[in-house]
TrEMBL record:
Organism: Candidatus Ornithobacterium hominis
Transmembrane segments: 9-31, 87-107, 114-133, 153-175
Membrane topology: Multi-pass membrane protein
Lineage: Bacteria, Pseudomonadati, Bacteroidota, Flavobacteriia, Flavobacteriales
Name of this protein: Exosortase family protein XrtF
Domain of life: Bacteria
Entry GO CC: plasma membrane
Length: 183
């Protein structure tokens, strides 16, 4: 019992994080299974991400398009007529968003600020991800010598860096500056 009193807050934070993470991951796995295993096509969110990247790249002057080929669980992305990438479920950043949401929920105190911050964070992560994929497609097409470094190191740093920045803002401005010490 003494151990519980001593570590109650830490245990509750970890419990909230893992519970949220587990529920969201199970829901996401169920969603993915329907499309990737049963239908053997890219899921709708991944399709939306791929379509959005195409729109963004066309907006700045590139000839960009993507196609769903039946039986492929990804979208083929073409830039200026060159097949440059596959946009699959790993590209849609939902797994990263699940980690972000789990952390914010774990440290959330009041429903409305937590909910609004999650919404804002998800929008910022989505926009960051669209720019990340757009830049990767540009590099794959015009600077293939940087392909591996960009895909495996630089661009994961961008999306995870955004998560860390959002977490730091959450802790600094929404948790430390509050008078309510309950979790």
């Amino acid at each position: 019992m003494e151990l519980w009193k001593k570590y109650k807050i830490l245990i509750l934070l970890i419990g909230k994080f893992f519970f949220t993470y587990l529920i969201l991951t199970l829901l996401y796995s169920w969603y993915l299974n329907l499309y990737l295993t049963d239908l053997k096509i890219a899921d709708p969110f991944t399709g939306w991400v791929s379509d959005s990247v195409g729109y963004l790249m066309r907006l700045v002057g590139f000839d960009a398009e993507n196609h769903q080929i039946e039986g492929e669980a990804f979208r083929r992305f073409y830039l200026d007529g060159f097949y440059c990438s596959r946009v699959n479920e790993g590209c849609n950043a939902i797994s990263v968003m699940i980690i972000f949401v789990s952390f914010v929920v774990a440290f959330g105190k009041k429903f409305m600020p937590t909910f609004l911050y999650i919404l804002l964070g998800l929008v910022l992560l989505h926009i960051t991800n669209l720019f990340r994929i757009s830049l990767l497609n540009y590099i794959f097409t015009y600077h293939p010598q940087y392909e591996k470094f960009s895909h495996d190191i630089l661009f994961p740093l961008i999306i995870y860096g955004m998560v860390i920045i959002l977490w730091l803002i959450w802790v600094r401005y929404f948790l430390i500056n509050t008078k309510d010490d309950e979790i």
